[in-house]
Amino acid sequence: MSTAKSARKYVPKPEGLNLEFHLACLEAGTLRIQRCTDCGHFRHPQRWYCPSCHSRNYDFAPVSGSGRIYSMAVNHFTVDRGWADELPYITAVVELDEGPRVVGSLRDVQPGEAGLGQPVRVSVEPRGEEFAYLWVDLA
């Protein structure tokens, strides 16, 4: 009898502002989004300057994690063997209630069970010391 060992999922190594985003989420254990500390505008992906007031001042503020599916794709193939056992899986773009959009994987949802505009909640899962994986759950 052979027991197949499943492959490990690839864990990216973020740098710069992306690393700051992941570290902020990991430290808090919840989703944090870059926010201009001068005008309060949330932005994602992270940028050096605020698109609203052009300030360089920012922090990573907590957000609710609540939002709606803006777009999604059903993945039937993967180049990362670590995901092979989970095919097909759904990658979703979520528009958060605070405005920005984030990308994550729908958890425990089969194709056809989710649709555009559906309410969801985004959470973070540590994957190493420098990467937070974003999971999307139906609300």
Tell me what you see in this structure:
It is a single chain. The chain has 139 residues and is mainly β. It has one helix spanning 16-28; strands spanning 32-36, 42-43, 58-62, 66-75, 89-96, 101-106, 119-126, 132-138. The strands form 2 sheets. A 5-stranded mixed beta barrel has the order 4-5-6-8-7. A 3-stranded antiparallel beta sheet has the order 2-1-3. A hairpin with a 5-residue loop joins β7 (119-126) and β8 (132-138). The protein is globular, with a radius of gyration of 16 Å. The mean pLDDT is 94.
Largest sheet: 5 strands, mixed, barrel
Instruction: Please report which band the strand proportion falls in: under 5%, 5-15%, 15-25%, 25-35%, 35-45% or over 45%.
Output: 35-45%
Largest sheet: spatial strand order: 4-5-6-8-7
Tally of DSSP helical segments = 1
Query: Which regions have little confidence, pLDDT < 50, spanning 5+ residues?
Result: none
Order of helices and strands: HEEEEEEEE
Shape: globular
By oligomeric state, this entry counts as: single chain
Mean pLDDT over the full residue set:
94
State the distance separating the first and last CA atoms.
42 Å
Helix content: under 10%
- Structural class by secondary-structure content: mainly beta
Extended strand count: 8
Radius of gyration: 16 Å
